[in-house]
């Protein structure tokens, strides 16, 4: 007969993987989660546990530090809305150099459905995949 620890571990493993996936997705899709105005000023660095709370650490410029206190409730609300529950309890901001990377415009070849091979190659180049 299987031990209780083994059964609980097997039962909770998909939930841990789902949370890890959502955390990674937050970092990759930051601009869509918080909006352009916040993504230009704040960059996510890490999510860590602080006693019984989960904290999102953000990097911001010196001017962003002044607005961080006022932007924190909106950022917290948007991030928790992304997770679908109150996943993050607090936000901690640190000062540093923030470099905003604008999204590359999609190549025009995507609009031509007759040329699938070229469209797939253009997608690969856009995503920097060989």
Could you walk me through the main structural features you see in this protein, from its secondary elements to its overall organization?
The chain has two domains: 4-99, K homology (KH) domain (GMP Synthetase, Chain A, domain 3); 102-130, no CATH class. By secondary structure, the chain is of the alpha+beta class. A three-stranded mixed sheet has the order 1-2-3. It is flat, with a radius of gyration of 20 Å. The mean pLDDT is 78. The protein contains five helices and three strands. 52% of the residues lie in helices and 18% in strands. The chain starts with a helix and ends with a helix.
- Count of discrete domains: 2
In angstroms, what separates the terminal alpha carbons? 49 Å
Indicate the low-confidence ranges by residue numbers. Answer: none
The fourth-level CATH homologous superfamily of the largest domain is K homology (KH) domain
Q: Give me the strand/helix succession.
A: HHHEEHEH
Q: How many helices does DSSP assign?
A: 5
- Secondary structure: number of strands: 3
Shape: flat
CATH architectural grouping of the largest domain: 2-Layer Sandwich
- Which secondary-structure class do the elements indicate? alpha+beta
What's the CATH topology name of the largest domain?
GMP Synthetase, Chain A, domain 3
Mean pLDDT: 78
Largest sheet: 3 strands, mixed
Strand residue content: 15-25%
Radius of gyration: 20 Å
